[in-house]
Write a structure and sequence with these properties.
The chain is of the alpha+beta class. The protein has 3 domains: about 80 residues; about 140 residues, no CATH class; about 110 residues, Glucose Permease (Domain IIA). The protein is about 50% helix and about 20% strand. It is built from 8 helices and 14 strands. Strands 5, 7, 8, 9, 11, 13 and 14 form a 7-stranded antiparallel sheet that branches. It has a 3-stranded antiparallel sheet with strand order 6-12-10, with no helix packed on it. Strand 7 and strand 8 form a beta hairpin. Helix 2 packs parallel to helix 4, helix 4 runs parallel beside helix 6 and helix 6 crosses helix 8. The longest helix is centred in the N-terminal third of the chain and has 82 residues. It is rod-shaped, with a radius of gyration of 50 Å. The N and C termini lie far apart (about 120 Å). The relative contact order is 0.09. It binds zinc ion. The site of zinc ion has 5 residues, from loops. Zinc ion (ZN) binds next to loops.
Length: about 400
């Protein structure tokens, strides 16, 4: 404590030593004047000088602060510019994304329209409106539009695109449900005809079992376009194979005669008396009875065949072929497209025949099968078949145009 007071006193003494009364003698042109500068006056001058100095320092400081502030402002502007640039970049990226989404949407739309035309021969709106078995339709068909999936932070244009995308996804889901339903119905009907649906789809996938599956090449991009679109690929193929098989199934009477004699299978040969495989069904009727195509198809053979006599063969696609034998005449020619029930020939007794009758065969992938199961198809199977024929017919009609 005492040292502090002592220190203060010491400084005071030093300050007092600085300001002491001064007497100055000035001699000008022989006159001597006496000038006295008091310590008080010196202190006043020093005070003024100090104040001036302080003012100058304050001004300098203000300028310096101002400069610093300006620098800060400049930094803020730079920051704003950087932000604007970043936002511009974001906008550019967003524009790219919007363009990309729009391109995706267009591609999907084209695919959907392609499916509608290739597989249904109608515009997409009609498929959605078609009430196919509304009762057991999967949940996907009735699911409301997931608008919550649309990011609310997106700009309005992007939201519009996202909504469109969601609607398209939903439509694809609905289409998938409708296609699966058709495929399931066809599968059931095909199985009821004694055919193996899984084997049919498998053999079609490996390229056997006939042409006319229009999906190949068109659905290649489906996987890249989303889940629903990828699932559509397999469903459409299954539907095509099974429905076309149903259409190809020769369930129409090959002749308007009710009696069917000799059945399919092993029986006593009427010529040799031994056991022989009878690979078809026989229809007895007068010579000239109209012979009708049992299913739509293309005439693949017209002419004489050893044992069969005059023969017509029809290729129905999907590995399905029908043969009409012992004919007395033809009303068609090779390459002609025929519809079910269309006359192709006249009943006769040519070849190894014991009397006027039609020998009718059905071949599946080169193997003769009993035609009876096709000819005796139940109403429920025929209903699914008629539905399939309508769809396939619509495509064929469009293709022919
Ligand atoms: Zn026969």
């Amino acid at each position: 404590m005492s040292s502090k007071i002592a220190g203060l006193r010491h400084w005071r003494q030093r300050l007092s030593a600085l300001f002491q009364d001064h007497e100055i003698f000035i001699r000008t042109h022989g006159h001597v004047r006496f000038l006295r500068i008091s310590a008080v006056w010196q202190k006043r001058v020093a005070l003024i000088a100090g104040v001036v100095l302080l003012a100058w320092a304050a001004t300098t400081l203000a300028v310096l602060v101002n400069q610093l502030l300006t620098a800060d402002e400049r930094a803020a502007v730079a920051r704003q510019q950087a932000a604007a640039l970043a936002s511009e970049k974001r906008i550019a990226q967003y524009r790219d994304r919007v363009a990309e989404t729009a391109a995706d949407l267009e591609e999907r739309q084209a695919l959907l329209e392609g499916i509608a035309e290739t597989h249904f021969g109608i515009d997409p709106a009609a498929i959605a409106a078609e009430p196919v078995g509304a009762a057991d339709q999967p949940a996907a068909a009735t699911e409301p539009l997931k608008t919550s999936a649309v990011d609310p932070r997106l700009p309005p244009e992007a939201q519009a695109l996202a909504r469109l995308e969601a609607r398209q996804e939903q439509f694809a889901g609905r289409l998938l449900a409708a296609v699966n339903l058709r495929a399931n119905n066809a599968e059931e009907a095909v199985a009821k005809l004694g055919l193996n649906p899984a084997a049919l789809v498998r053999s079609a996938a490996t390229g056997r079992g006939g042409p006319l599956i229009p999906y190949k090449g068109k659905m290649g991009k489906a996987k890249a376009l989303g889940e629903s679109f990828a699932a559509l690929e397999g469903a459409l193929f299954r539907m095509e194979v099974l429905e076309r098989t149903l259409v190809a199934v020769p369930s129409g009477n090959p002749a308007n005669v009710l009696m069917m004699s000799s059945g399919f299978g092993y029986r006593r040969d009427p010529f040799t008396g031994g056991a022989a495989m009878h690979s078809g069904l026989d229809f007895r009727g007068p010579i000239g009875t109209p012979i009708l195509a049992a299913a739509p198809g293309r005439i693949s053979f017209v002419g004489s065949k050893s044992g069969y006599g005059n023969t017509v063969e029809i290729d129905h696609g999907q590995g399905m072929m029908t043969r009409y034998a012992h004919l007395s005449g033809y009303t068609t020619k090779v390459g002609a497209e025929v519809t079910a029930g269309e006359q192709i020939a006249k009943m006769g007794s040519t070849g190894r025949s014991t009397g006027s009758h039609l020998h009718f065969e059905v071949h599946l992938n080169g193997v003769a099968v009993n035609p009876r199961r096709f000819l005796e198809a139940k109403a429920d199977v025929l209903e699914v078949k008629a539905d399939a024929r309508q769809r396939v017919g619509a495509i064929t009609a469009r293709g022919a145009r």
